[in-house]
Amino acid sequence: MVGHPIYEALDPDRPASLSPPVLDMLREVFGFTGVAITDSLAMAALRETRPIDEIATAALAAGQDMLLATRPDEASLVVNAVIAAVERGDLDRERVGQAADRVRRLAAALSAVECEPTGSAQTISTLATAG
């Protein structure tokens, strides 16, 4: 999870979650090949600076793969913003495809794991099968 602090030495103008240099470092220097997930897009550190549609597209463009929308009204705004940005050419379709591929690989890996649900995992399992 890449949070929203500003690391001035890497990118003095953007929070880490929206910073290409930070996400590049995660991939190239640290060799991380998994899913890069934002912290909540509803956090004041971001929302006070720009609207959710701009935050979402900036995060994907920077190299995030999964966007954490924690407010009920955010998910459709984020999806619509990403679709519109791709259609306008403001967000690279290939970048969105890379993100989707990483998320699909994670989902496939998680679905292949067999475990006996207990405690909160049991609750999650129950909720997942109820819908």
At a glance:
This protein is mainly alpha-helical and 131 residues long. Helices cover 54% and strands 5% of the residues.
Describe this structure as you would to a colleague:
This protein has a two-stranded parallel ribbon with strand order 1-2. 54% of the residues lie in helices and 5% in strands. With 131 residues, the chain is mainly alpha-helical. The model has no long low-confidence stretch (mean pLDDT 87).
Number of helices: 6
Mean pLDDT: 87
Strand content of the residues, in percent?
Answer: 5-15%
Alpha-beta content class: mainly alpha
Rg over alpha carbons: 16 Å
- Tell me the overall shape: globular
Query: Helix and strand succession?
Result: HEHHEHHH
Distance between the termini: 27 Å
Low-confidence stretches: none
Largest sheet, described in full?
2 strands, parallel
* Percent helix: 40-55%
Keywords:
131 residues; globular; mainly alpha; two-stranded parallel ribbon; single chain; 2 strands
Please outline the helices and strands.
Elements: H1 20-29, E1 37-40, H2 44-47, H3 52-62, E2 66-68, H4 74-88, H5 93-111, H6 119-130
Parallel strand pairs: 1-2
